[in-house]
Design a protein that fits this description.
Blueprint: H1 4-7, H2 15-21, H3 24-36, H4 42-58, E1 63-67, E2 79-81, E3 83-85, E4 91-93, H5 97-101, E5 102-103, E6 123-127, E7 134-136, E8 139-148, H6 157-177, E9 186-200, H7 201-204, H8 208-213, H9 238-253, E10 258-263, E11 269-274, E12 277-278, H10 279-299, E13 302-305, E14 319-327, H11 344-359, H12 361-367, E15 389-390, H13 393-404, E16 439-441, E17 446-448, H14 458-481, H15 485-500, H16 512-521, H17 529-532, H18 539-547, H19 553-606, H20 613-644, H21 649-675, H22 688-692
Parallel strand pairs: 1-8, 15-16
Antiparallel strand pairs: 1-2, 3-4, 5-6, 6-8, 7-8, 9-11, 9-12, 9-13, 9-14, 10-11, 14-17, 16-17
Helix pairs in contact: 6-14, 9-10, 11-14, 11-15, 12-14, 13-15, 14-15, 19-20, 19-21, 20-21
The protein binds adenosine-5'-diphosphate (ADP) and magnesium ion.
Length: about 700
């Protein structure tokens, strides 16, 4: 631990390692590939592969893997040894340029949403030079893109890289007409804040629902939840702190800049935020981070839950995707400066984002959709399922000025004098924060707060980059043609504000008033993953993805299918687990309790007492037990019906949501009530109290 700074990045094949280890000419051509996309020739790849292998072997690696991100929210890895037998019965360690740059995994078992028949299994992985390779647990990990034999993207990295390129191109065009001649590249930057729960492994092991589904399917409300606000930013327990320390040090060794850690709102909930980076690397890093979080937890006798809603009644987890655009000469395009009203460039980019988010809010919504997140969005703990933008007082005021014409001044927040000579005078930010907004401006970036905690942030960034690129390209088209650029900019700003201010909302996003108001404004309120999925195949959305070559119609259709299939499968597993627990654990426990009550009633009777508390309790338990049995039957019927459906994935998803899922809820309702009256000696599952308060 003491050496954490010296160890920073030691397990990552960073720029400085490459510079130090590669021959000068090789390093130069690799840099050209990384920065300008120039194709790497095999000769150069061979030299890099050999040096990469030597470095990895020094770090204890014996294997390499092409690491990729299929359409599930996980990562995939197949490990191959560097070993190559020689004629004298020994072996050499070898790694070629071909092995580095191209892999050929059997792709048949990865979801493709019908893009390819299972019999045509071939798929390829291609080295992503822009994301550093790293060593973990004896294997060299090479970040790669995953593509089908026929060239369709089967992963999230390919469209992400494409979306970054198109955004760069269109942003540079806009900058150029605005008079910036030096910027050659604009990069989108991302800092994802990651929420999670830590649960004691011994308690976790006794909950089949957590083991199979990542969330509790049963559990009565504990006497104490998050009501006292005593966990958020609270003092770290030593067990948690020691977990976090090991996590940080492992992430730092991988070159992942973990920066902020704290307790979150719910008991046992925490957050980790890294320092932001280039979107592609930030996205890869977040995938690694989630994996390291889970593995380090096990070493501490803990389990890290990344599910969006592990516990009913307490806050669930999300990810906040902090997003901005920066130029290659170091300028943040969403930085308002001291007087934003005079900062034309900022206003152009700001209003472009506003327009893009308004026009394509359904794409952002689906990028954050999964079965777990359906529990969070709109449940008064996370943003509603309605996409809106928070700008804060200062920008809201400027937007109002723009709507009427030019913006002539910027509001400021006065310094805060605390009235104590020894305390500093605070210069405060021109905007306050708004925790309830799904898309909040936070001073020099937007924070998209709908993202599911277990999800891949590539999804929302693919959408965001592409739709902002679209609006920037429209702006560039107009400005490039304009005879009076200044007047045209003014016109664009006013127009964008007028047409899209309906998406701006600074108030409380958790309130019922907002839901009503949003409906009046015509903003979509898409409550479920099943409904959200449709955005992936609407004509308008297909058009924008195809225009920029980020995703083809076929690729979008495959993602639509995968989203729905994944949803239905998740609910199907949850339903099966609900039945398993209800039938084999809860119902038997209820019967045991009934038997013990009956025995007790007989004993009391024998002692000459006629009416007893036991009789009342037995009646109550028996009634609830019958109702549980009945609800189990209804759920079983629903599951059987769901399993008999075939064909239309939308209809199947719809049935899972509005029939199977509803009936699961009914089983739970009765079971949770039983939990509150059945003798704890008989109850088969650790309670919420035991889950949430034992770490
Ligand atoms: P909060 O106070 O909102 O919880 P955190 O400090 O937890 O904020 O996280 C803020 C995140 O925003 C960090 O990951 C930070 O690196 C990131 N961030 C800061 N500036 C930018 C930027 N220009 N682009 C993208 N992300 C940024
Ligand atoms: Mg934070």
């Amino acid at each position: 631990m003491g050496n954490f700074i010296e160890n920073y990045g030691t397990n990552s094949f960073t720029d400085s390692v490459m510079k130090e280890r590669l021959p000068k000419a090789t390093y130069k051509s690799l840099k050209k590939t990384i920065e300008k996309g120039v194709i790497l020739d095999l000769e150069v790849a061979n030299i890099i592969a050999s040096s990469l292998k030597d470095w990895a072997v020094e770090k204890g690696a014996t294997h390499f893997t092409h690491w990729f991100q299929p359409l599930t929210d996980t990562t995939a890895e197949k490990h191959d040894a560097f070993v190559s037998p020689t004629s004298d019965g020994k072996a050499l360690l070898e790694f070629s340029g071909k092995e580095l740059t191209k892999g050929e995994p059997d792709a048949s078992s990865f979801p493709s949403g019908g893009l390819r028949a299972t019999c045509s299994a071939r798929g390829y992985t291609a080295w992503d030079v822009t994301s550093p390779a790293f060593v973990r647990d004896g294997t060299l990990y090479i970040p790669t893109a995953f593509v089908s034999y026929t060239g369709e993207a089967l992963d999230k990295k390919i469209p992400l890289l494409r979306s970054m390129e198109v955004l760069s191109k269109e942003a540079v065009r806009v900058l150029k007409v605005l008079g910036n001649t030096t910027t050659k590249k604009v990069t989108t930057t991302v800092g994802p804040e990651q929420e999670y729960f830590l649960i004691d492994k011994k308690v976790y092991d006794k909950r089949p629902d957590l083991v199979y589904t990542g969330r509790t399917l049963f559990g009565a409300k504990p006497p104490k939840g998050q009501e006292l606000d005593d966990h958020y930013f609270g003092s770290l327990k030593e067990r948690v702190s020691s977990y976090m320390k090991e996590l940080d040090s492992e992430l730092w060794a991988l070159g992942i800049p973990a920066k902020t850690k704290h307790n979150e709102v719910a008991p046992s909930q925490h957050e980790l935020a890294p320092i932001y980076g280039t979107t592609n690397v930030a996205s890869d890093n977040n995938q690694v981070t989630m994996d390291v979080m889970k593995k380090v937890a096990l070493r501490h006798g803990l389990v890290c839950l990344l599910h969006e809603k592990p516990f009913a009644g307490v806050n669930g987890s999300g990810k906040h995707n902090n997003w901005s655009m920066g130029t290659d000469d170091g300028e943040n395009l969403l930085s308002p400066g001291k007087t934003p009203n005079e900062n034309t460039q900022f206003l152009v980019f700001l209003t472009a984002v506003i327009k893009a988010v308004d026009e394509y809010s359904d794409l952002l919504r689906v990028s954050a959709a999964n079965a777990g997140n359906d529990h969070r969005l709109g449940a008064n703990e996370a943003p509603p399922a309605i996409v809106s933008i928070f700008l804060g007082d200062q920008l809201e005021d400027i937007i109002e000025q723009l709507e009427k014409g030019t913006a002539t001044d910027s509001k400021f927040a006065p310094d805060l004098n605390l009235g104590v000579a020894t305390l500093p005078v605070l210069h405060i930010d021109p905007t306050d924060r708004n925790r309830t907004s799904p898309f909040a401006f936070t001073g020099n970036r937007f924070e998209f707060r709908m993202v599911p905690s277990s999800g891949n942030i590539a999804d929302c960034n693919i959408a965001l980059n592409t739709v902002v690129a679209e609006v920037l390209s429209e702006i560039a088209d107009r400005l490039e043609k304009a005879t009076d650029v200044k007047a045209e900019i003014q016109a664009i700003l006013t127009e964008n504000v007028k047409d899209h201010k309906k998406i701006i909302f600074n108030g409380n996003g958790y309130s019922d008033e907002w839901v009503a108001e949003a409906e009046k404004r015509g903003l979509p309120n898409i409550k479920t993953t099943v409904e959200a999925a449709k955005a992936l195949i609407s004509d308008k959305n297909v058009a924008v993805f195809e225009k920029f070559g980020v995703l083809s119609k076929a690729e979008l259709h495959s993602r639509y299918e995968v989203t729905l299939e994944n949803y239905s499968t998740t609910i199907s597993i949850e339903a099966a687990t609900t039945l398993l627990i209800a039938k084999r654990q809860i119902l038997p426990a209820v019967i045991k309790f009934e038997t013990s009550l009956a025995g007790s009633i007989a004993a009391v009777k024998a002692a000459g007492v006629t009416t007893s508390v036991q009789t009342e309790l037995l009646t109550e338990v028996a009634t609830l037990g019958a109702s549980l049995k009945n609800n189990i039957g209804l759920l079983e019927e629903s599951v059987a019906k769901a399993e008999s459906l075939s064909g239309d994935t939308y209809a199947i998803g719809h049935f899972y949501k509005f029939d199977v899922f509803e009936k699961m809820g009914k089983v739970r309702e009765v079971a949770d009530e039983l939990e509150t009256i059945v003798d704890s000696e008989f109850w088969p599952l650790p309670t919420y109290g035991e889950l949430l308060f034992t770490v």
